[in-house]
Amino acid sequence: MARHIFRCPLRWADMDAFGHVNNVAFLRYLEEARIDFMFRLAPGEGSASFTGGSVVARHEIDYLRPLVHRHEPVTIETWVTGLAAASMTLGYEVKDAEVLYARASTVVVPYNLAHQRPRRITAEERAFLEEYLDGAVAA
Question: What sign does the dihedral 116-104-32-2 (CA atoms) show?
Fold first, then answer.
């Protein structure tokens, strides 16, 4: 199974009053990694994959260690933990070489913005996502 690697810079404004990266900032970090994974790595030049819209149906985050501001980016690894007809579940690890700061997952539903409703994952999107599937059975 492949994992997508995203190097996310930390911003001074991400810290809370206790000097740690605020829990809400972690959601932004996951969003940046997810967008980099789904849009910049979308298959094929000119492909419409992943460009029709998507919505987040669920987030789950386990905070394991405090993350404090620093100049070096944090690494976010992203992979697919579940794949159904009209949704995908992404797994994440927020870490550096020495420390795992958080584990998370997000359920993403492809969405047809023009019709204002969920849509099925296309064959092209499925082929791309399966490269990052952790071995779970695709539905």
Answer: negative
Q: Please indicate whether residue 46 or residue 123 has the higher confidence score (pLDDT).
A: 123
Contact predicate 79/61, CB 8 Å: no
- Which two three-digit tokens encode residue 23? 């829990």
> Domain for residue 96, yes or no?
yes
The pTM of this model reads: 0.90
CB atoms within 10 A of CB 48: 11
Res 139: pLDDT: 43
| CATH label of the domain that carries residue 22 | 3.10.129.10
pLDDT tens digits, 38-71 = 887 666 666 677 777 889 999 999 999 999 989 9
Q: Residue 110 — φ and ψ, nearest 5°?
A: -60, 140
Burial class of 137 by CB neighbour count within 10 A (0 to 12, 13 to 18, 19+): exposed
Element (H, E) at 123: helix 123-130
Domain assignment of residue 37, given as a range: 4-130
Helix (H, G, I), strand (E, B) or coil at 104: strand
Is 137 within the bounds of a domain? no
